[in-house]
Amino acid sequence: MGSVLICLAALVTVDGLVSSSAAWLATPPPPLPVLPIPSASQLRWQRREIIMFFHFGMNTFTDSEWGTGSEDPSLFRPASLNASQWMDAAQAAGASLAILVAKHHDGFCLWPSAYTAHSVRASPFRGDVVREFTDAARARGIDAGIYLSPWDRHDARYGKETAYNEYYEAQLRELLTGYGSVSEIWFDGAKGKNATNMTYHFSEWFQTVRQLQPSTNIFSDAGPDVRWVGDEKGFAGTTCWSTVNRSMITIGEAGIETYLNQGDPRGTDWVPPECDVSIRPGWFWHRNETAKPLLQLLEIYYNSVGRNCVLLLNAPPNATGLVADADVARLREFRAALATIFNTDLAAGSVARASSDRGPRFEARNVLDGRDDTFWAPTADDGRRNGYWIELRRCSPERAFNVVRIQEHVALGQRVERHQVFVDGVPVANGTTVGHKRLHRLAQPVAGRTVRVWVAAAGRGPPLLSAVGLHLDPFVAAGTV
Ligand SMILES: *[C@@H]1O[C@H](CO)[C@@H](O)[C@H](O)[C@H]1NC(C)=O
Ligand SMILES: *[C@@H]1O[C@H](CO)[C@@H](O)[C@H](O)[C@H]1NC(C)=O
Ligand SMILES: *[C@@H]1O[C@H](CO)[C@@H](O)[C@H](O)[C@H]1NC(C)=O
Ligand SMILES: *[C@@H]1O[C@H](CO)[C@@H](O)[C@H](O)[C@H]1NC(C)=O
Ligand SMILES: *[C@@H]1O[C@H](CO)[C@@H](O)[C@H](O)[C@H]1NC(C)=O
Ligand SMILES: *[C@@H]1O[C@H](CO)[C@@H](O)[C@H](O)[C@H]1NC(C)=O
Ligand SMILES: *[C@@H]1O[C@H](CO)[C@@H](O)[C@H](O)[C@H]1NC(C)=O
């Protein structure tokens, strides 16, 4: 208690000094952005951190992952579908956006599309799952997203370039004009080896999305707004740039996974990665499968959100039309574990100093205020050769931590190329990129008075850090990940 009081007194003193000088010093402007920078929609997306995915459709009733397209619509008969209960799952995970598979590769449409007979309209269910989903999401204050599979194994127009692209465009229009705001839309290049040849008119599709809903984030291997991370494990590269050259990526083409996983420090397009992974082994519900254990979900979180990505977590509703209670419970457990780890910041109350700062509004202490829009900025001349540093002098040096959180103010571009963390002079962690959020798990909990973060950003202007946090993860410490 005594040391906390001393620390608070120190904080007040530092505050007093800064504000008395700020009274007569003009505030310097923020540094120039380093291009490319995110759009407003991309920034909103990045701050979501966790998004839910719901794979539900014909496959749910046929125990498959890829349907053939010849399924009888009468098989689709959820006994008590309740999309509000799906939102219980989304809220359990703390997600602010939920994406629905409106049509998978089997071509069966979960809404009564005017352009095909192969939909809920021909099933005993008769309702409109897209409507129930978007209404349920909106009622909970959750944003809605849509996945519409390009590969369609049912429709006879598939393989006829103009006819199929017209069909796909018409369905995009139905989904983007009939169901309110759609915050993210998913396109992929998944296709069986023997699939009929078909050229998708991605450029036309993307521009149609822009015309109908300009703030929707468009996901595909190549963006334009959000890119695939290159695997379905939910793991980004330890180096992970939000930037790529879109011209180097062909949607659906094999061999680009490493580029997608790591990004490109010289990339000219801001297209941050999304890590899609299912809570169960399959994307669709299967009676024989169960949710991943908590430690595995935490591992996924550290390797996705903790590596500058957004986690897109799938929870498949079952054949009754409900997410299994056990899966909802696991999501709740996951969220509670994240709160246990991250709701206490063991850096709080520290006194911060740095190799330099740009002046009032850009001081080192901004990394401790819990805000994304304030940041520490060093001077332009500092650190070009030897890197920059920021140091926290802790109030309670005896309180051990095993997670270090570093965040960049990416609104002005992603800059950090290398970084290293020292506790009382001893190196405990290091890495390359930081981005929106970088989490380091230490081999074991460490205590100490000073935590210093050293960063290099040679080619990309001075680094701008919005947060440095210290946390104790009791789950990883107790288990073996
Ligand atoms: C649907 O789920 C919601 C949320 O769990 C619940 O409040 C509601 O009672 C359910 N509706 C029906 C008809 O079971
Ligand atoms: C692909 O086509 C070949 C030749 O027709 C066939 O032998 C093979 O089983 C097919 N593979 C799949 C996955 O359908
Ligand atoms: C698809 O088209 C390519 C190039 O035109 C050709 O090489 C390939 O054999 C075709 N595949 C099928 C399944 O028809
Ligand atoms: C991406 O484009 C930039 C600018 O044209 C170029 O300097 C860079 O080398 C490209 N990246 C790759 C991996 O080719
Ligand atoms: C569960 O059943 C499905 C369909 O029969 C099968 O594809 C999948 O591999 C099974 N999963 C496990 C974990 O055994
Ligand atoms: C689906 O999940 C609900 C909630 O756990 C459960 O009551 C129902 O029996 C499940 N349906 C099937 C087919 O397993
Ligand atoms: C960087 O971290 C790795 C793994 O934690 C460690 O083996 C290595 O010694 C560290 N390097 C430096 C320079 O601290």
UniProtKB/TrEMBL annotation:
Gene3D superfamilies: Galactose-binding domain-like, Glycosidases. GO terms for cellular component: lysosome. Residues 1-16 form the signal peptide. Residues 74-334 form the Glycoside hydrolase family 29 N-terminal domain. One of its GO terms (molecular function) is alpha-L-fucosidase activity. It comes from the Eukaryota. The keyword Hydrolase applies. InterPro entries: Galactose-bd-like_sf, GH, Glyco_hydro_29, Glyco_hydro_29_N. The keyword Hydrolase applies. Keywords: Glycosidase, Hydrolase, Signal. One of its GO terms (biological process) is fucose metabolic process. Pfam families: Alpha_L_fucos. Its EC number is 3.2.1.51. PANTHER family: ALPHA-L-FUCOSIDASE, ALPHA-L-FUCOSIDASE-RELATED. Belongs to the glycosyl hydrolase 29 family. This is alpha-L-fucosidase. The gene is gb23045.
